[in-house]
Amino acid sequence: MADRYLSFTATAPGRFLTRRLGLPQPASLVRWSPERPSLTGTLLHLTAGTSALDLSPVLARTGLGPGTAAPAAVVLDATGVRDVETLAEVHAALHPVVRSVAASGRIVLLGTPLDAGDHQQAAVQQALEGFTRSLGKEIGRGRTVNLVRVRDAGGAESTLRFLLSPRSAYVSGQVVEVGGGPAYTGDWERPLAGRTALVTGGARGIGAAVAETLARDGADVVVLDVPQAEADARLLAERIGGRALALDITAADAGERIAAELPDGLDVLIHNAGITRDRRLVNMPAERWSSVLDVNLASVLRTTDALFAKGTLRPGGRIVATASIAGLAGNAGQTNYGASKAGIAGWVRALAPRAADEHGVTVNAVAPGFIETKMTAAVPLFIREAGRRMNSLAQGGIPADVAETTAWLAHPASGAVNGQVVRVCGQSLLGA
């Protein structure tokens, strides 16, 4: 369903009226397209404190360069901020330039992991998180602000490329921790060429967008969905040059059957299948509870364990699961759904280090907010409008926003990103 309010505010009368009434004024977001693969404009690189990080080679490959025009992006290296005095340099660096950042521009702060042995460093590096989220809520005009806790420039390149591009249009107010690693020397245009990806719940909506995006990036995509959606799955698979697999992911032998279908192994596993059965707890029968937990959480745990046991997930592989801000902030009428999606977040954080050590596989999650799908189009008008406006970008996202974030986490250059739960919600006012 079209966002008529967004269209109205793009007109001169709409801008005038909403400004006079103090109503949200969402900006049309610049998203990735073949014609516009990168932001247009200059990149301003600033430093607070004394940094040992050499970002110049990485930033030079983002498609943005130095210049005197209004910056399309600002990168502030605050890895050298270790006390309250140098924290003031963050204000000094950004205060003069924030207003000049172009519409749909990007601000990325770089910090370091918190040092448990240095309470002053931990305090001011944590302060960067509150600064980032507060600036994201006030900056407006479709601009985003994110914080990356980084160990070295090589491991951070895929994350910086993502956050400094149109692919991250609906990702703001996020804190991503990135480990160390060698620089990526592969193909940035088709990084998944020669790799096999499986997307559960892939026939429609967000799952279909993920399948299309991974195929764009070169993957051989297996579109998995329930037998009732087999026709849609086959049509999509034919369109993207992939394969369809009709399978109930909750079946006890689902993992074994997937392994049998992929005898040569799997590189990218996207756990996207999910259902809702909303009702307040006092009115929720056991079946509504158990069906949601089985599809959204138990099937993820069972299937992943089976694929690891079978050796189907190859070293260098990526697992990306779909959580939700409902699991982070809670939502009335969704105790079952919120529990299942919070469970995904806990599973990611616990499994990620072990999967990396034992299998060479990373595990991350995306947590969508209000995304414009057929499901949200059926939500009552006033609830739908609240969902759209209750974020820093004052609009809903689209399935491609979740798909682009998933593709970043699935990228072979993203091996330093592990155990992260990244919200794709336009910096929702709900949750952290």
TrEMBL record:
**What SUPFAM superfamilies does the record tag this protein with?**
NAD(P)-binding Rossmann-fold domains
GO MF annotations, alphabetized: oxidoreductase activity, acting on the CH-OH group of donors, NAD or NADP as acceptor
Q: Which InterPro entries match?
A: KR_dom, NAD(P)-bd_dom_sf, Sc_DH/Rdtase_CS, SDR_fam
Q: Which PROSITE patterns does the record cross-reference, listed alphabetically? A: ADH_SHORT
Where the record annotates domain Ketoreductase, the positions are: 195-374
Sequence similarity: Belongs to the short-chain dehydrogenases/reductases (SDR) family.
What name does this protein carry? 3-oxoacyl-ACP reductase
